[in-house]
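Task 17 of the worksheet. Students: predict the tertiary structure of the chain below and write it out as structure tokens. Keep your answer in the requested format; marks are given for formatting as well as content.
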Amino acid sequence: MILSLILKEKSLFEELYEYFYEKYFSVDMPYLENFKVQSNALFSFRTIIIGITIGIIIASAASVYNKRHLGAFIRTMIEKDCLGPEKAMTLEALGYDKRLGVAMAVKSGGTLSRWARCREEDEFYAAVALKKAEFEEAHSSDKKPPKFVEPEFKRDYKTMHFYLPEEKKYAAEVKFDPKGSRWGGVIIVAIFAIVLCAFLCYILPDAVKLVDNFITVMNE
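Model answer:
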């Protein structure tokens, strides 16, 4: 009984897939005199158009998120004069210790890692540079000196101190300026992009046929 229900459910999904594929993705290829274009080629073009549309929507949402949410953290650092290693503060002191998005962004390789500098990281790499210089000096007389392996530093957002370099203050204010960044704008972009995507996917076969007819006329 259960197996039969699973099979029925599977067949239902298969029917839905076939319906949407036939309605929105399958291409009725017109007769072309000058091109040898298969249906799967137009399907690929449609897939690319859909992929670009999704990319535009994601990029628009990411831009608003970065400027409004992550940018709020940068603006807080500026407001609290957290503009140098001697003025560095923890996320808790800045009021962002509970913000997982900010915590992930300030970690090594995160979105804000090159803006929110870490005092402990600066001290770590300064010590590494000193050790590297001592190592190279100690092996300067070797014919084949060994390679110095630099250790990797990992930021601990819970305990470490962060700051915005003074020289990056203006650039950060411009980059993370929230003016004009609204979630409503993302919705408008998404609607426009989806409508344009649907239109391009719909006219694609006719557009190819139009180009083919134009070439035929020019060759006569």
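Marker's comment: The mean pLDDT is 82. The beta strands are 117-118, 162-163.
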